[in-house]
Design a protein that fits this description.
The chain is built from nine helices and two strands; from the N terminus they run αααααααββαα.
Length: 187
């Protein structure tokens, strides 16, 4: 017991209180000079106006004016502007000139294949398999519903604008000009 009393006497009481870490120290208020801040912002705001006014008074900006028409300086200025305008047109047309016809056709083919519908793609791969397809999921615009499944025969419709000889003779109808497949109303 006497040992414990010796240890307590070796460490003074104030050091025990000070040894607690981390200590919280209140942050000091950020001190700023409001007048200095206002002067700095005022100088930054007013300096372009002051420099512009002094430059106008002393004639600093006269060298930026266009030369008088008919003078050699004006002819040089106009020639340089025409050259710059021509070069801009030429540089703008260079990429289109460097593309060959085969490159343009390849790009069009890729874009056409990307935009092609599912039915046409399957029809190109195998005509009979496309018609007998049981169901193909088609993307729908409504994301909350399941995508609809379409059968192969509704994926693509092959039509022709060419009329056969019988259609031409019958007035454009393939059933002989009669409705209901050639049946009359009496039969």
């Amino acid at each position: 017991m006497s040992l414990n009393n010796n240890n307590n006497n070796l460490i003074p009481n104030f050091q025990i209180k000070m040894s607690a870490f981390p200590r919280r120290v209140p942050k000091a208020v950020v001190k700023e000079n409001v007048n200095l801040r206002r002067a700095f912002v005022g100088v930054l705001t007013a300096s372009p106006l002051v420099v512009g006014g002094v430059g106008e008074y002393l004639g600093w900006w006269k060298k930026l004016d266009l030369p008088e028409p008919g003078t050699p300086e004006r002819m040089l200025f106009d020639t340089q502007n025409n050259d710059i305008r021509t070069m801009r047109q030429w540089i703008g047309s260079v990429p289109s000139l460097s593309r060959t016809v085969s490159m343009i056709q390849e790009t069009e083919k890729k874009l056409f294949q990307m935009d092609m519908s599912i039915g046409v793609k399957k029809f190109i791969l195998d005509e009979n398999a496309a018609k007998n397809e049981e169901g193909v999921e088609v993307d729908s615009l409504i994301f909350t519903q399941a995508p609809p499944k379409l059968k192969g025969d509704s994926l693509i419709v092959v039509t022709s604008s060419k009329k056969s000889d019988t259609e031409k003779q019958d007035g454009g109808q393939p059933d002989g000009g009669l409705k209901n497949g050639g049946k009359t109303a009496e039969s």
